[in-house]
């Protein structure tokens, strides 16, 4: 009797739908995140981020693993966390909200000679000669200016870690000529640099974020016709540049973000182990700010290891066998 022909198996031509559905879901989530970064405020973004992380880390279909199971979060380099650096880098709403918050804080310092405004460049913080005090023809900051600059630096760093900061020095129209500063151009540039150095020292900013600019007397805020007007023109302006202008700089923002992350980890370690932090070595303080000195730990461990081979070492009242062999060899 002839054998029956085995029926050919039906080829499943719809398997691609599973991969296609996963791809579309991920694509949809990507655009939701991008939209949230651009439109929502900080609290709304965090709520959206938490909702997305929960959705991508739970089982949507029975007997199937989560879509993002075992993978890094789409919002950060770690699972289930939202990167504040990415939020700062991408969200125009976060940027604008932070500008407004900083301006409110700066407005409280008007009596100290500090004011702020928001324009197309970004947030402009103006420090007149009452806030940043220099000796005539000098770029060395007087000590009474340190507190104000430190306070402004702290306010900025609470909201911005990777925004470019341009510091502009301005002078009046009085001519200057010295061996150190042949003109107001050199003097205004040096004064801007002095403010930058103090900002970096006070709040440990990444130096690559700063741009020092000297504009001499080319952009006066008042005609240089009286002593009062000239004092208004002698000023320093700190400008937190908008992210839309980041492409104008030749600096590598991706590298800066990586350095800031490493710096943040170093600061966390310092807070957890305050006794291991040493003073700065030499004059190059910036290079030593994130260094954790492990000399004490090394010396303690070295002493412990050395004690294992000392003749006086005792273990439960009995000297270890390898020490007895060492004595016999002698």
Describe the model:
It is built from 10 helices and 5 strands. It is of the alpha+beta class. It has 4 domains: 25-60 and 70-82, no CATH class; 95-251, 2-Layer Sandwich (60s Ribosomal Protein L30, Chain: A); 258-288, no CATH class; 295-329, no CATH class. It has a 5-stranded mixed beta sheet with strand order 1-2-5-3-4. β3, α6 and β4 form a beta-alpha-beta unit. The longest helix is centred in the first third of the chain and has 24 residues, at 16-39. The model is unreliable at 59-81, 276-298 and 311-315 (pLDDT under 50).
Q: How helical, in percent, are the residues?
A: 40-55%
Q: How far apart lie the N and C ends? A: 96 Å
Question: How many individual helices?
Answer: 10
Low-confidence stretches: 59-81, 276-298, 311-315
CATH architectural type of the largest domain: 2-Layer Sandwich
Average of per-residue pLDDT values: 75
Task: Say which CATH homologous superfamily of the largest domain is assigned.
Answer: OmpA-like domain
Main sheet specs: 5 strands, mixed
Q: Could you name the CATH class of the largest domain?
A: Alpha Beta
What structural class results from the helix and strand content? alpha+beta
Write the H/E string, N to C: HHHHEEHEHEHEHHH
Oligomer: single chain
| Count of separate structural domains | 4
DSSP strand content: 5-15%
Strand order of the largest sheet: 1-2-5-3-4
